[in-house]
Design a protein that fits this description.
The protein is an alpha+beta fold and 204 residues long. The chain has five helices and five strands, in the order H-H-H-E-E-H-E-E-E-H. The chain has a five-stranded antiparallel sheet with strand order 2-1-5-4-3. Helix 2 packs antiparallel against helix 3 and helix 2 (12-68) runs antiparallel to helix 5.
C-alpha cells in the first residue's frame, strides 16, 4: 500500500512514461521468449536432420567392415565421414561390434580398439535423434547397425553444439538492445505527450 501511495504521489508527467516503459518491458519479454523458443526448435530440427544424414552415410560405409571385423576399414570410414561433415562439428565417433566392444574410434588414444565402451555412453541418449547436454555444449546421437534383421553393432557420435548457443545469445542481446531502445523512445514520447497535454492546465 505504501508503495502504491508513493507511486500515486509521482506527477502524472512522470507516472505515464514509467507505465509505458514497464508495459514495453513486459511485451518485449514475451516476444523475446517466443523468438528464442522458435529459434531453439528450428536449430534442433536442423541439427537432427544433419545428424540423421551423417549416421545414415556412416552406417552404410561401416556395415561391411563391421561384418568382417575389419578395424582398419572402419577407421578409414570414420576419417572420411569427419571430413565430409565439418558443418556438423563431430567431436568423437565410436563404432562398436555386436559384443559391445570398440572396433574403432575417431580418437583411438582415448578409446582403444577392442576395449569396453564406457557405461555412460549407453545412458546418455534421449528420445530425440540428438540429445543436447547444455552444461558441456555437446550433442549425442547413436545408430544401431543392423544386417538382415540382426544387430551387428552401434555407432556412438558426439557433436559440438556450442555454435547453437552462441547464436541464441547473440539474438538475445540484439533483442534486449532493440527492445530497450524502443522502451526508452516510447517512455520519452509519453513524457513529451503528457507534458503537452497538461501544459494548458498549468496555465489555468
Amino acid at each position: 500500500m505504501k508503495l502504491l501511495r508513493r507511486f500515486r504521489s509521482i506527477p502524472v508527467s512522470y507516472r505515464v512514461p514509467v507505465l509505458v516503459a514497464l508495459l514495453m518491458v513486459v511485451i518485449s519479454a514475451a516476444i523475446s521468449e517466443r523468438v528464442l523458443s522458435r529459434l531453439s526448435l528450428t536449430q534442433e530440427s536442423f541439427l537432427n536432420g544433419i545428424a540423421e544424414t551423417y549416421l545414415d552415410g556412416l552406417s552404410s560405409a561401416v556395415v561391411p567392415a563391421v561384418l568382417r571385423v575389419d578395424v582398419w576399414e572402419v577407421f578409414d570410414a570414420l576419417d572420411r565421414s569427419s571430413a565430409s561433415y565439418k558443418s556438423l562439428a563431430p567431436i568423437e565417433t565410436v563404432v562398436t561390434g555386436s559384443d559391445g566392444r570398440v572396433l574403432a574410434a575417431s580418437d583411438p588414444n582415448r578409446i582403444a580398439t577392442y576395449s569396453e565402451l564406457p557405461a555412460d555412453y549407453r545412458n546418455r541418449y534421449g528420445p530425440d535423434v540428438v540429445t543436447i547436454d547444455k552444461a558441456s555444449l555437446t550433442g549425442f546421437a547413436h545408430r544401431d547397425l543392423v544386417y538382415q534383421g540382426q544387430p551387428i553393432g552401434t555407432i556412438h557420435a558426439t557433436f559440438d553444439v556450442s555454435h547453437l548457443f552462441a547464436e541464441r545469445r547473440a539474438i538475445l542481446v540484439t533483442l534486449l538492445i532493440t527492445n530497450g531502445v524502443l522502451a526508452a523512445l516510447f517512455a520519452l514520447g509519453g513524457f513529451v505527450l503528457v507534458r503537452q497535454m497538461i501544459g494548458p492546465m498549468r496555465v489555468l
